[in-house]
Design goal:
Elements lengths: L9 E6 L7 H11 L3 E6 L9 H8 L3 E2 L12 H8 L2 E7 L1 H9 L5 H8 L3 E6 L3 H5 L1 H12 L3 E2 L3 E4 L5 E5 L3 H13 L8 E6 L4 E2 L5 E2 L6 H12 L3 E6 L11 E4 L3 H12 L4 E4 L6 E3 L18 E3 L3 H8 L5 E8 L5 H10 L3 E6 L11 E8 L4 E8 H13 L1
Parallel strand pairs: 1-2, 1-4, 2-3, 4-5, 5-6, 9-12, 9-14, 12-13, 14-17, 17-18
Antiparallel strand pairs: 7-8, 10-11, 15-16, 18-19, 19-20
This protein binds cytidine-5'-triphosphate (CTP).
GO molecular function, one term: FMN binding
Cofactor: FMN; Mg(2+)
Family: In the C-terminal section; belongs to the PPC synthetase family.
Length: 399
């Protein structure tokens, strides 16, 4: 049945001119199997590989190509589609379209819809591996990620031009899976203020060296993106990390634990939900050298002093009714140590991840959380992407 009105599971699928364009047909079907209504917009180059007739037949919906097309007379299609979509998914996304999106160019129907669109966006690139590695493309993707777009990284393997490397469109199941995760996000944090600490801290030893840890900041980044998707007003106090933080959030960059404490304390009074995803260095060198420590002595001793417990300080300073939540990286699945930590820090709940399990936690793209609540309840996320874990956690905390 032809139907299109505002609905969360309306997907506008943008298809660009890549050899992988043929796989967008399967993707459209997979999204429909998952309950989505799919409308396809092709770029003119995509039409060299696939046709409007194919997508109209598959989806039972109109397919757009030219910037001035208007299938429903009197309605400006680019505005109509942008307003009514719950997700704009571009797969395959070419280097050219990614660059035009990042620059805000609107010179065909797909980029015009994108420029009028304010909702959730997912980009699945596909191209030659050298093109994918090019600095211009990396920058454009980073720009889109910082504006809140989710990127489904291409897979490694043989690409159509015969080269090997990262550039193959991710699998249809993977793209549809991420689309489902993004579409499933509720608006439970609408109007709420969320404060997140993220990434590692760096504690100077001298002017060129520091003590730090392996935190990538990916979980904090996923939490910030998820909280924005769920409608929150988000502030992230982040230690040094290359994980992309969304522009839609207020970002406070810090280096040391003491700076992180100061940055977060200054903002905690407003927050309804505070999440400590940072891997704070527990100790710092007692008296960092002003210059560079020289290699003269055969041995040096570094005196370390304890850093403040940031999340515990935030729990005491937060407004009444605010939920303050920590993370606990534990070297095993045992929830008992986490319960002790939760009580010691005065938290509402603590999200435990088992850092001894392979493929999750530090620097990984996936995680598996057990949410231990002060009221005694316990929930398990199962193994999922960090974004899916973040949404899962926020749904529990925001409700
Ligand atoms: N945390 C913090 N400030 C610190 C240490 C930890 O805010 N100085 C926060 C982390 O962001 C996390 C939680 O406390 O949310 C638990 O961190 P973890 O390193 O597991 O706990 P520690 O208190 O350091 O306990 P231990 O090292 O004994 O496991």
């Amino acid at each position: 049945m032809l139907w299109w009105g505002p609905a969360v599971d309306n997907v506008v699928l943008g298809v660009c001119g890549s050899v992988a364009a043929y796989r967008a047909a399967d993707l459209a079907r997979e999204l429909m199997r998952r309950g989505c209504t799919v409308r396809v917009c092709l770029t003119e180059s995509a039409e060299k590989f696939v046709t409007r007739a194919l997508f109209e037949a598959l989806t039972g919906q109109p397919c757009l190509i030219g910037a001035f097309e208007e299938p429903e007379s009197g309605r400006m299609a680019h505005i109509d589609w942008a307003r009514q979509a719950g997700l704009l998914l571009i797969a395959p996304a070419t280097a050219n379209t990614i660059a035009r999106l990042a620059a805000g160019v609107a010179d065909d129907m797909l980029t015009t819809i994108a420029s009028a669109y304010t909702g959730r966006m997912l980009i699945a690139p596909a191209m030659n591996p050298s093109m994918y590695a090019s600095p211009a493309l990396r920058e454009a993707l980073a720009t889109l990620a910082s504006r809140g777009a989710e990127i489904v990284e291409p897979a490694e393997g043989d690409v159509a031009c015969g080269e090997q490397g990262q550039g193959k469109l991710a699998s249809v199941e993977r793209i549809a899976g991420v689309a489902s995760v993004v579409l499933s996000a509720s608006h439970a944090l609408s109007g709420k203020k969320v404060l997140i600490t993220s990434g590692p801290t760096r504690e100077p030893i001298d002017s060129v060296r520091f003590v730090s840890n392996r935190s990538s900041g990916k979980m904090g980044s996923a939490l910030a993106r998820a909280a924005l998707m769920m409608g929150a007003d988000v502030t992230v106090v982040s230690g040094p990390s290359s994980a992309p933080l969304p522009i839609g959030a207020t970002i406070v960059r810090v280096e040391t634990a003491e700076e992180m404490l100061k940055g977060a304390l200054a903002r905690v009074k407003d927050a309804d939900l505070v999440i400590g995803a940072a891997a704070v260095a527990d100790y710092r060198p007692a008296s960092p050298e002003k210059g560079k420590i020289r290699r003269e002595a055969g041995r040096i001793e570094l005196e370390m002093v304890a850093n403040p417990d940031i999340i515990a300080a935030l729990a005491s300073a937060a407004k009444k009714g605010a939920r303050v939540v920590g993370f606990a990286a534990e070297p095993g699945p045992d929830g008992e140590a986490a319960r002790v930590k939760l009580a010691r820090k005065g938290l509402f709940a603590i999200a435990v991840n088992d850092v001894s399990a392979p493929g999750i936690g530090f620097d990984a793209d996936e995680n598996e959380l057990t949410l231990v609540r002060a009221d005694g309840g316990e929930e398990r996320s199962g193994r999922r992407s960090k974004l899916a874990c973040a949404l899962w956690l926020l749904e529990w905390l925001g409700g």
